[in-house]
Amino acid sequence: MAIVKGKEWALVTVASALFAAGASAHEQTFSPESHAPAGVMADHTHAKGEIMTGYRYTYTSFNGVYQGSNEVGANELAAAGYSMMATAMSMEMTMLDIMYAPTDRLTLMLMPMYMTMSMDMDMTASDMTHDTMDMHSSMDMHMDHGHTGHMSHEVDGIGDTNLSALYKLVAKEHHTLIGTLGVNAPTGKSDLKNADGSFVHYGMQLGSGTWDATPSITYTGASDALSWGVQASALIRLEDANDSGYALGDKYAATAWGAVRVVDWMSLSARVNWSDQDSISGHYNGAHNHSSPADIQANYGGEFLDAALGVNTVVTGGNFAGLRFGLEWLTRVQEDYNGYQLGLDDSISANITYAF
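Below the sequence we write its predicted structure tokens.
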């Protein structure tokens, strides 16, 4: 299971203390299960004039190389012509979640993001050729004392920025239907390069480099202490290629969840998530490597099924009434990777929000 770093555990601790302090006032103004699990976005709107500010954090770890649904090793990758293989990767996403409702039905959302990604790689063969050594000499490469080579590299910076409009199509007491039209602005770099001037792996770029549409439709329902929801969403590239010569694949997803309130201020949730993403189209228009699966466009995308468990809390009274905290753990249960790829191990999402 992925480990949340110190600053995130500090956030959890502070938030939990606030909820415990506020929960003693047993006002039923707020319900914890009225918001979707932490890994779901664009699930709710706000009342006219209301502003919500929030912080979202996601940590995802990847381990093991897969072809389709089967895990493969260094020998298989060497036979396929690869001299290097990724052994592990971590990705952190930190987002601000800012929402404003000009009307009771329309809510506007702005979500800037900061990303950090790190990858560990090993050689697939026991011998290191001079060409391979030259190819990686410009990167942060740490050699073992034996005949195997190990390298690691990290990138960080601003990611793409989402701007969305959420419209409440149906607004009944226990049922809502929300349609969302959004766009990802290409504020993240898609031209990061190694010290020798070659492009880094496609998957280590901070942004898509294209304008991307992010439509979704979300249904939510509630009855007493129970709530549920279904969301269908898409990530559609609006340009054939970015300035670096390629475009990431379109992605389609559907998720469903259910939650139960266990105490006035806390609910528990379970969720399943299906997604299908195309491989990369186009090609880097500058110097780049072909030594590892991550360098090849066909080794991206696939069809996946994930499962998640979460907890939502809300302060129901007192000075911090309405302050929400959510935490969700997700893991992959079924996969069909395109080509050769690192497999998703697990992911943790946390958010804290307050509306006024």
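The helical segments are 6-22, 74-79, 130-136.
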